[in-house]
Design brief:
Helices cover about 40% and strands about 20% of the residues. The strands form 3 sheets. Strands 1, 2, 5, 6, 7, 8, 9 and 10 form an 8-stranded mixed β-sheet that branches.
């Protein structure tokens, strides 16, 4: 029995050492001055640590512990900043304020995209009538298979001429110029979190037409008071990020977990679900909760939600937002 327990303890220690060793090597790769060299050196300490555990030479754990401590210090000493040489599409963070029944938004992005890294940079100041809030839509843009999607919230405001003006909030990484997104790097404090407010012809157009992503639009149903509070929570989060930056994290602080955290503020006790991490299935989760009208099977709703072909066909149209919603199931505020 004692021998069995000893073997079990060593096997457990082996798994822990391997996991910690991988984390330390990756952290040093992204955070150390000579990342590749530091990561390689950290990786070499893992076999030595395993030999120490199985051979009873505990001094062999020292290099492993030093590598881990250095990775830990570098990771937790890193601080987010709003002062970097940002890429053009995240030069500004969304900020807003409420004045009476009006929402005044600074830095609403209204780019006209020609390529993924080429666009006419247009930033607008917009005013929205909170009493005219008439719709909320979930936008899910699929770029890496069915399990992964970028999720956004679009708020619609009725205009005196009958149009619906829409404002989209998107939680994204705030890239520096020349920087590329990496899901792995997103675990190691390589990007700040950004809340972007944008026109639909910008933020849906670039994903559907330029990046060729599979964009799906799901109209949501909820009380009007809840929709208004959801909108203001988005604005408050944007304001807090502009004042106090935070790091993006691939799993814990991303484009889906941010809207979910806002929703939990509105509905305390909202159950956690694996589909928050597998963001491509987040619409299924909302369907089960009843936020997406469920009078039809979800497969039918999902097919109707696919809007990329309509977006490509109407990218230059003044009624772009209406055109991409052709055939969507009805929802709305009550």
């Amino acid at each position: 029995m004692r021998r069995s327990l000893s073997i079990l303890a060593r096997l457990t220690a082996t798994l822990i050492l391997i996991g910690c060793g991988i984390w330390s090597a990756l952290a040093l790769f992204y955070l150390a001055r000579n990342g590749s060299l530091a990561a390689g050196a950290a990786a070499l300490t893992v076999p030595l640590a395993l030999w120490a555990v199985w051979g009873g030479r505990l001094w062999g754990l020292l290099p492993f512990a030093l590598a881990g401590a250095l990775a830990f210090i570098l990771f937790f000493n890193l601080r987010p900043s709003n002062q970097r040489d940002w890429a053009n599409d995240v030069t500004y963070l969304a900020t807003g304020k409420v004045k009476g029944d009006g929402l005044i938004m600074d830095h609403v992005r209204a780019f006209r995209w020609r390529a993924d890294d080429t666009a006419e940079p247009i930033w607008r100041k917009r005013v929205y009538d909170l009493d005219a809030l008439t719709s909320v839509d979930l936008i899910a843009s699929y770029w890496m298979g069915e399990p992964i999607a970028h999720t956004m919230l679009s708020f619609g405001f009725a205009q005196p001429d009958g149009r619906i003006e829409r404002l989209v909030f998107s939680a994204e990484i705030r890239k520096e110029k020349g920087e590329q997104y990496s899901a792995l790097a997103g675990f190691f404090r390589q990007y700040e979190l950004a809340i972007i407010a944008a026109d639909e012809i910008d933020i849906i157009g670039v994903r559907a037409q330029v990046r060729n992503e599979d964009v799906r639009i799901y109209p949501l149903q909820m009380p009007k008071a809840t929709a208004r509070e959801l909108l203001l929570l988005e604005v408050n989060l944007a304001n807090r990020l502009a004042a106090r930056p935070r790091f993006y994290n691939t799993v814990t602080t991303n484009c889906t977990t941010v809207p979910f955290q806002i929703a939990r503020a509105l509905v305390p006790g909202l159950p956690r679900d694996w589909r928050i991490l597998a963001s491509g299935y987040f619409p299924d989760y909302l369907y089960e909760l009843g936020a997406i009208p469920n009078a039809q099977p979800f497969a039918t709703i999902r097919n109707a939600a696919k809007s990329s072909s309509r977006a490509k066909a109407t990218i230059g149209y003044a009624n772009f937002s209406d055109a991409i919603r052709a055939g969507l199931p009805k929802a709305g505020l009550f």
